[in-house]
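User: I'm writing a short report section on ligand binding and want a predicted complex to refer to. Could you take this sequence and NAI and write out the structure as tokens? A short remark afterwards would be nice.
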Amino acid sequence: MAHTVCLIPGDGIGPEVAEAARAVIDAAGASIEWILLPAGAAAAEEYGEVLPAMTLDAISTHQVALKGPVTTPIGKGFASVNVQLRKKLNLYAAVRPVRSMPGVKTRYDDVELVVIRENTEGLYSGIENEITDGVVTSLKVATRKACTRIARFAFNYARERERNRVTVFHKANIMKVSDGLFLECARAVHEQEASNVTYDELIIDNGCMQLVRDPSPFDILLLENLYGDVVSDLCAGLVGGLGVVPGANIGDDCAVFEAVHGSAPDIAGKDLANPLALIMSGVMMLNHIGQIEAADRIKDAYNAVLAEGNTQERTRDIGGTGGTKAFTQALIRRIEAG
Ligand code: NAI
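Assistant: Sure. The structure tokens for the complex follow:
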């Protein structure tokens, strides 16, 4: 029976990469009935809302979505659609696997990391006030419930995938109470539920330095919301950039799969976007819904196309001369050739 999946193209390069991902997933023989849904600046123009109720309702009902990026205005305007979506659907864990890709040249050959980010609180609670002219505050919220939940998620993830190290990046030397609680919860889950997994902690500035100097000792990185956002992009830079890193936002009831990158307005509509990050997010989605064979076909196809190194069949961000469509067609040809 076909699985219903909500497809949210989003803004900027979103429609281009969403179209590519859908074509590749369909070519791989996945049994999916797509429902196209609006969100983001494009949705605001048509429906008067950046996150229309129909989109939230459909994800709640069907429980799985593949989402393109959406634009968030800087320093003004509406609250981030992503933050709203994650909070309203309680998608508390962002999971971002970061792996070296065959044929994509970077400083490192064997990066194999997973960034696990708390997705619902921290400074992203959006509680900001102007106390008086020229004085503002921004509230960092940490709750024992959410900190324990994300720590448990990370250790379970490690156990299920036989990974053996979880490292928390924190700034509890300065934010002793909020980051202190994050650490306290991670330590408690480790001691009580996962003492066979190696656990360690690094102050985030030192952690970033160690990551860029040599990422090989790291395995699973566990971070609160803002640090996870920043470190995800840093890690993407280790393996070829934002065009090759997928992601999932997971809750107890729903999951929304999306690339780490944003709407890239600088390259939107120019056939320059690398669709691979969203295609890889689609592979995560197929595994999540149990369509493993289709997921494997896509994975084999992109590994083969990248390993061959034909520059016309890859986008510029990873050293090619081709466009979104040329790469997508190369993947589809490869899948069809078996
Ligand atoms: P961005 O990730 O959109 O772009 C950063 C740089 O990476 C740009 O030079 C862009 O051209 C390049 N890039 C990104 N994705 C690419 C791809 N698939 N292929 C080739 N090059 C790619 O980040 P930026 O410019 O800071 O943000 C743009 C907008 O996206 C903002 O409104 C931001 O709020 C939003 N955003 C949305 C996210 C989401 O919907 N999940 C995540 C991050 C940002």
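A remark for your report: The chain has a mean pLDDT of 96. Residues 1-97+244-338 form a domain with the Isopropylmalate Dehydrogenase fold (CATH 3.40.718.10).
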